[in-house]
Amino acid sequence: METLQPAREQKANRVINILSIAIPVAVAILLGIRQKVDLGGWTTYLPHINAVINSLTAVLLLMGLYFIRQQNVEAHKRTMLAAFTLGSLFLVSYVLYHLTNNSTPFGGQGWVRPVYYFLLISHIVLSVVVVWFVLRAVYFALSGQIQKHKQTVKYAFPIWLYVSITGVVVYLLIKPYYVH
């Protein structure tokens, strides 16, 4: 059935809206904390792990698109839930890194500098925006509201794919400046 009871739908929308605001705000607050927590040297490897997570997420997103175009709904569902899980894992890892380590300044000069900052800023802005779209897309899919799911992923998919890919590109551009 395409529509749920209005009260249940309102509750889901409220939770999605709250999470879509709370997650970026919490991340911003955690990034602003100057006193870092010492969890050990292993946390310096998290940016490298995050790049792998973002790469795998991008691959899974493309596989999910392939599967749905092949009308393999079950493979699409498994693949997209795996991408969502990786995205959640990335968020935890990203927060852990910035809670325990100072941000790395970009040292590149010349033409690469504005390219880096354009990619970084667009990545950050769209990573905030995509949370709402992805949560709605997952909710609509899992609640059987396939038409609403399709409408949402028209926006969610390209934004999520862009955020995943630019996350890796930004990582590759700043990688030479990480200090271990």
Walk me through the structure:
It is a single chain. The model has no long low-confidence stretch (mean pLDDT 91). The protein starts with 5 loop residues before the first helix and ends in a 6-residue tail after the last helix. It is globular and about 50 Å long. Helices cover 77% and strands 0% of the residues. The longest helix is centred in the C-terminal third of the chain and has 31 residues, at 112-142. The chain has helices spanning 6-32, 46-69, 73-100, 112-142, 146-174. The protein is built from 5 helices and no strands. It has one domain (36-177). By secondary structure, the protein is mainly α.
- Counting DSSP H or I runs of 4 or more residues, the number of helices is 5
Oligomer status: single chain
Indicate how many domains the architecture comprises.
1
Query: Can you give the mean pLDDT?
Result: 91
InterPro entries: DUF420 (IPR007352)
Keywords: Membrane, Transmembrane, Transmembrane helix
Protein name: DUF420 domain-containing protein
Pfam family, one: DUF420
Write the layout of secondary structure elements.
Elements: H1 6-32, H2 46-69, H3 73-100, H4 112-142, H5 146-174
Helix pairs in contact: 1-4, 2-3, 2-5, 4-5
